[in-house]
Amino acid sequence: MSGPESQQRQSVWPCGWALSPIDELFEPLGDGRKLHHGWSPQCETGIAGDDEWGVLKTTAVQDGAFLPEHNKRLPAKLKPRAQFEVRKGDVLITCAGPRVRCGVPCLVRETRSKLILSGKMYRFRVRPECIDSRYMEAYLRSPETQRLIDAMKTGISDSGLNLTHGRFFQLRVPVAPLREQRRIVAKIEELFSDLDAGVAALERVRANLKRYRAAVLKAAIEGRLTEAWRTRNPATEPAAKLLERIVADRRAKWEQDQLRKFKEKGKTPPKGWKEKYEQPSASTGEDAKPLPSSWCWATMEQLTTDGPQNGVYYPKSLYGRGTPIIRIDDYQNTWSRASDELQLVDTPPKDMETYGVRPGDIIINRVNSMTHLGKCLVVESKHVPAVFESNMMRQSLTTDVLPPFVAHYLKSNVGNARLIANAKWAVNQASINQTDVGNTPVPLPPLAEQSEIVAEVDRRLSVADAAEVQVEHALQRAARLRQSILKRAFEGRLVDQDPSDEPAAALLERMTIQHDRRTAGTGRPANRHRYGRRKPPVAKASGRS
């Protein structure tokens, strides 16, 4: 024998426990079936009101938590299928979706009326005389059970898997004596309550760190971080003079490029060729708070020597070898992956000249959800060579502007809001174009003050980064501890056994006999093995004590 059933039978449980097919622990529902597979009609986008019928979204089922507010309103023209209405005491498990969302269980502890089971989830109820519904939920959440369920899923890709009821019914539940089940559940709830309190405290710390970061960036771009520095350095060249030089240098570079092109073609520059130069858009800063007197407003276009430039698209057939490519998932204002973890793509040599990033380039998400639109990052030398994909754009700044300062501004709430102010929506995604980026106003401090701001921001944010790493490690430890608690629970090691408890095998056998007596003469089948042989619903209890 192979598969989940044999894997479970190889395990050892305490004396008094028994192994039961999961469906033998289900109580018949209103229509006599043991498992309901819901309904997925075309719904409206809004959430159903308290007196309206709604169909649950799969996100209503979280690991051990039921979120009834995650639903869509059923159109008035459709008759609700009341037989699928979710009720308190139901156990739900998702049966379709991405790998991480297929096989997620929860017990419905509380719910409002008129919520209908989705076609992407199952519903069942347990026989309360032999198993506690909270015990069943904990069993389905346990790491070993989730591993078995994961092996049962079918589908051609992780983005769309299914859990059939036939495979789901292969699970065998280690059933403890009923009184022990309740002790196990009470201990789990006690330990999880402590964990939940700790996790909530960590989440508050993480939220405070996020607010702290925002406050640091806000103070930086308003000049408040460097007030004392400006007092100590009154003779610094004002930003207005710096901007004049940047704009002049920008035009001089354009003229040099044009002369080079004329020379390469063997042509003499025509009369009035300099008049074709397009002045970059300027900023008035009228919509912003006043800046320190030594600062001025500029635009991204004025500060740019190359770009904005959109990235390059490659078909999936070219991925897997060649040059690293920076993709939109590789960063969200900070690097999400190390340089040696970037995807490789087989790029033509000319693409490296056009789309190869350079240290100091700023790359910006130009197509994404509104949450991540405009996220940006400064390319570091360790990420070169690399190209950048089409969902982002690249800008190279003049040497008189520090890329980290501009990036800090664009990451701030104010800077990001200005960057995406004219975003356009299409197919559930927002986008910004090169004009939007070029016209974005930027507060410009003197060059020396830019350096001071970058140093001060980095110093303060490094403290927040270190704290966030500790928070993340603590959250991971809490998640591992939660799984360890569930693992111990279904190995019989979380609470003590009581010899006076009625063994689960005896309880389940009595329930089977009572069931057969109730169904005798009714035409309903007695409890039989799938191959037709009469069989008690439990395996023999192990000898471990």
Care to describe what's here?
The protein is of the alpha+beta class and 545 residues long. It folds into two domains: 4-177 and 501-519, DNA methylase specificity domains (Adenine-n6-DNA-methyltransferase TaqI, Chain A, domain 2, Alpha-Beta Complex); 237-445, DNA methylase specificity domains (Adenine-n6-DNA-methyltransferase TaqI, Chain A, domain 2, Alpha-Beta Complex), CATH 3.90.220. The chain contains 13 helices and 27 strands. It has helices at 4-9, 133-141, 143-152, 165-168, 178-221, 227-232, 239-264, 349-355, 403-411, 413-419, 434-438, 447-489, 504-519, and strands spanning 18-21, 26-27, 36-37, 54-56, 61-62, 65-66, 71-73, 91-94, 96-97, 105-107, 115-116, 121-126, 154-157, 160-162, 172-175, 296-299, 304-310, 319-326, 343-345, 362-365, 367-368, 376-378, 387-388, 392-397, 424-426, 429-431, 441-444. Strand 5 (61-62) and strand 6 (65-66) form a beta hairpin. The two termini are 27 Å apart. The relative contact order is 0.13.
At a glance:
It contains 13 helices and 27 strands. With 545 residues, the chain is an alpha+beta fold.
